[in-house]
Design brief:
By secondary structure, this protein is an alpha+beta fold. It is 12% helix and 29% strand.
């Protein structure tokens, strides 16, 4: 008998890899000025274009290279479409801080790089989009022996120092409570595209979005 196969159709791809973070740039980001988030459950840097600072040039380059791998190698986006970093900011979570479920508006790809974290400082939690019925409809709660990426409504990822994650900006995510005694630090960022979008029979306007470069 032939072995059965299952095709995982229309998945939402989350890219993960590791970046070596220089201790000096880590301390530089930690030393930035932070302010309390509007939600009151964490802090972010006053500078919302953090990686545009000259001191962060090499780190921004490494993150952009990871974005190229994700979009070219795995998503096979054509070479004339360029992804550029829109904005970036540091995130700080003290003990007891957490992050509510949200998505990133006005961008195509989002990501996070972990600078200082441990197993109890707050996993990132991805949520299946509302109305996205990839298996059984949510009105019928089917029990499973094992929860995997294809049958779960929520998926937790336990980050380590140096981990980078890239994912579609519309993918809802949240951060679990920091239950550790360390202060958790990460960098969040968004990407958009520049380039001509067209098909064989229909050409649309150029997408002319300009990168905000306040430090250049």
């Amino acid at each position: 008998m032939n072995e059965a196969k299952v095709l995982q159709l229309f998945p939402i791809s989350v890219y993960t890899n590791k970046i070596n973070i220089d201790e000096d740039i880590k301390n530089f980001i930690i030393s930035q000025e932070y302010e309390r988030m509007y939600s009151g459950n964490g802090d972010f840097t006053v500078n919302k274009y953090l990686l545009n600072m000259p001191e962060c040039a090499n780190l921004k380059k490494q993150i952009s290279e990871q974005c190229d791998v994700y979009t070219r190698k795995y998503l096979t986006v054509k070479n004339h479409i360029n992804f550029y970093m829109q904005n970036s900011w540091g995130v700080r979570h003290h003990k007891g801080d957490w992050g509510q479920q949200h998505e990133h508006a006005n961008s195509l790809l989002s990501g996070v790089l972990y600078l200082e974290t441990n197993k109890d400082s707050g996993n990132i939690c991805f949520h299946k989009p509302y109305g996205y019925t990839n298996l059984f409809h949510s009105s019928t709660l089917i029990p499973f022996d094992n929860f995997e990426t294809h049958n779960s409504d929520v998926w937790l990822y336990a980050p380590e120092n140096g981990d980078i994650l890239l994912f579609p900006a519309h993918l809802h995510h949240s951060i679990k409570e920091n239950k550790s005694d360390i202060t958790r630090y990460s960098i969040a960022f968004n990407f958009h595209i520049s380039g001509e979008l067209c098909s064989k029979n229909s050409k649309i306007d150029y997408l002319k979005l300009e990168e905000n470069k306040p430090y250049e």
